[in-house]
Amino acid sequence: MKKLEFSVIDPESVAEIQHRTLWIDEENVLESEKAGHHGRFYQLRHVPEIADDPNKLKCIVKGWNRCGYHECQVYVGLPETNTPAEGIALPPKKGELFFFYVTSRHKVYDWRWEKFDLDDEDQFKFKFGDGEIIWPKPKKTS
Predict the structure, then answer these.
(1) Is 24:2 a contact under the CB 8 Å cutoff?
(2) Of 76, 79, 81, which is closest to residue 124 (Cα–Cα)?
(3) Contact 21, 47 (CB under 8 A)
(4) Which domain holds residue 37?
(5) If pLDDT is split at 50, 70 and 90, which confidence band does 25 have?
(6) What is the pLDDT confidence band of residue 100, given thresholds at 50, 70 and 90?
(7) What one-character-per-residue DSSP string does 27-92 give?
(8) Is 118 within the bounds of a domain?
(9) Taking the chain, what is the end-to-end CA distance rounded to the nearest angstrom?
């Protein structure tokens, strides 16, 4: 199995931003394009774009609201553009953020645009259950 690897912000970094590597099975990516899921294929480029840029990455959440995925992470960000096809660069749709889901083995499992408001506590609870934001680290108050 050939892997495509990405450098991403490590949510465990404390004082300064550190990086770690995530991966995706190259065959899964190529199958998406062959099956005609061109938007999904081209939007994969947003993964490294937001994952390594603290200005584009809004947060990293630990825990999906699915059984067995409580240790997994979700990177949520806002790329500069939405690229649904080769040569097409659109502005992101208002109210949408780019999500990619990472398993506990550091594999990028899924990626997509979603309509989401990070400030809406009910929406956050519905999507992530008991998940918690692990990056950026909450500011300590005295």
Answers:
(1) no
(2) 76
(3) no
(4) 3-135
(5) confident
(6) very high
(7) HHHHHHHHTT-HHHHHHTTHHHHHHT-TTTEEEEEE--SSTT-TT-EEEEE--S-EEEETTEEEPP
(8) yes
(9) 50
pLDDT at 140: 60
Query: Looking at the domain assignment, is residue 142 inside a domain?
Result: no
Residue 141 lies in a domain: no
Which CB contacts under 8 angstroms, 24+ apart, belong to 35-40? 38/84, 38/85, 38/86, 39/84, 39/85, 40/111, 40/112
Of 15-19, 32-36, 84-88, 121-125, the poorest mean pLDDT is in 32-36
> How many CB atoms are located within 10 Å of the residue 72 CB?
19
Peptide bond into 138 cis (omega under 30): no
Domain-embedded: residue 140? no
Please give the tally of structural domains in the chain.
1
pTM above 0.85, yes or no: yes
* Distances in whole angstroms, Cα of residue 126 to Cα of each of 65, 113, 118: 8, 17, 12
User: Distances in Å between the alpha carbon of 140 and those of 118, 120, 123, 137?
Assistant: 20, 22, 25, 9
